[in-house]
Write a structure and sequence with these properties.
Strand order of the largest sheet: 2-1-3-6-7
Number of helices: 20
Distance between the termini: 32 Å
Number of domains: 4
CATH superfamily of the largest domain: P-loop containing nucleotide triphosphate hydrolases
Length: about 450
């Protein structure tokens, strides 16, 4: 058998058709017609894929998805959608669905989706096996190679930033971190948390760009069972999860305008009201926010509340771009080489002075994230134990063009949109695979999909 499939579909004719199709293609199939029976099936047995209709007699596929998420059942879920339900399916993907499939189902597209699931699972298993082998066979090597999660630069510019962090960290002040994409704003937020009086409490990071107007109140403040269709159980929001610690609002400029007033009220009164609740809950949370946008312009454009901005921006820390402290590139390059050695099971010992000079002469528009990606690729392709200019692109201009093309930095909007569409088609709609093809993270891909209003 190729794998075990759970079908959740209340349309008898369609459900039987899919069951027969999978059985003909050598899959083991179990078919349910509602959420309750699907939950029972998932409790009794492990499946490789769940194929669930969005609309079901006792709820919807999102409710099943939430139930699985709460119980840490990580079986990939493909949501089946009817006409006009695609936006809801995209919301389901934000909750963890692997992908969605529009009805009527094209057998060739169905096969591609299922193949993508098994391809992804195969890659994840290989990665897991690699990690297990390293833990089993190279314990001492890994231990001796362990590196700190945060590396501090030595340049005067970064030393000044660290002084500001040390100054504000022990206070209760809200902090706004400003910086270009890839500069390490989340690392700065973690440093603030670790040097604060809340260091023993949780650090909860929230991607505001991934919060839709519909999901944001529930994700931030929680909800009560039955407060809306998919609310099968009480849910704890991010504010409660961060109780006694720090809540990091990443890319806060992307927070839906309608949610900004609710956030402002929470910060002013230090209490939340879960969706569907009649009472408030006191919360003790320190807020650190970050953005690479010009929030001043967003305020003028009516996209961000000025009163919320001032509440979040009690203290500002600016993270400089990498091009402004090239003297620290050798330090970060060495750190990323150690990371890549562990991840890729390589044994690169050093980098030549000529190669370092080439790295220092580049402008790094993608900042530390771009440097890390370049080092990882270079470690992978280096045959000896030392990285030299031979392992890097031979000309600085070619380096710039190649890397910026991969990062999508030299493209105009139309070119970037076309590139994303091509990647999604090549990946058969698999967002994780498309993000890897584009060499960006999944969060960035979702932001781009919303920016260009791509019809998925």
């Amino acid at each position: 058998m190729k794998g075990k499939i759970l079908i959740v579909e209340d349309d008898t004719a369609f459900g039987k058709m899919m069951q027969k199709w999978f059985e003909r293609n050598d899959f083991s199939v179990h078919w349910c017609t509602d959420i309750k029976s699907a939950q029972e099936a998932l409790t009794r047995k492990a499946y490789d894929v769940v194929l669930s209709d969005l609309r079901l007699p006792d709820g919807d596929g999102i409710m099943l998805l939430q139930w699985m998420k709460d119980r840490k059942i990580d079986t990939p879920v493909i949501i089946l959608t009817g006409y006009g339900e695609v936006q809801t399916a995209v919301s389901a993907i934000k909750l963890g669905a692997f992908d969605f499939l529009e009805k009527p189902v094209n057998p060739s597209v169905l096969k591609q989706k299922i193949d993508s699931v098994f391809q992804y699972a195969h890659e994840e298993k290989k990665e897991s096996d690699k990690i297990s082998r390293k833990k089993t066979n190279h314990v001492e090597t890994v231990k001796s190679s362990l590196i700190p999660s945060i590396v501090k630069g030595k340049s005067p510019l970064l030393q000044e930033m660290y002084e500001y962090i040390a100054l504000v960290a022990p206070t209760p002040m809200s902090v706004m971190i400003l910086g270009e994409s890839g500069t390490g704003k989340e690392y700065v937020a973690r440093m603030i948390h670790e040097q604060s009086t809340r260091a023993r409490g949780p650090f909860v990071a929230v991607d505001c760009g991934g919060l839709s107007m519909e999901l944001a109140p529930s994700e931030l403040f929680g909800h009560k069972k039955g407060s809306f269709t998919s609310a099968l159980e009480d849910k704890t929001g991010f504010f409660v999860e961060a109780e006694g610690g720090t809540l990091f609002l990443d890319e806060v400029g992307n927070l839906p305008y309608g949610v900004q007033m609710q956030l402002l009220r929470t910060l002013q009164e230090k209490r939340i009201r879960p969706v569907g609740s009649m009472t408030d809950v006191d919360v003790d949370v320190r807020i650190v926010a970050a953005t690479n946008e010009d929030l001043g312009k967003a305020i003028l454009d009516g996209k961000f509340r000025e009163d919320l901005y001032h509440r979040l921006n009690e203290f500002t820390i600016k993270v400089p771009p990498l091009r402004e402290y090239p003297e620290d590139i050798p330090l970060y390059a060495a750190h990323f080489i150690k990371e890549a050695n562990i991840e890729l099971e390589r044994e690169i010992q050093s980098i030549s002075s000529e190669a370092l000079q080439q790295l220092k002469c580049y402008s790094w528009p993608g900042n530390l994230r771009e440097l890390r990606n370049v080092i990882r690729r270079t470690v992978l392709f280096t045959t000896g134990d030392t990285i030299t200019t031979v392992n890097l692109p031979s000309k600085e201009e070619e380096t710039r063009k190649e890397i910026e093309k991969e990062m999508g930095l030299t493209m105009n909007a139309d070119e970037e949109k076309e590139r994303i569409v091509r990647a999604l088609k090549k990946a058969n709609g698999n967002k994780s695979l498309a993000a890897r093809l584009l060499q960006i993270d999944r969060k960035t891909l979702y932001n781009k999909i919303r920016l260009y209003n791509l019809d998925l």
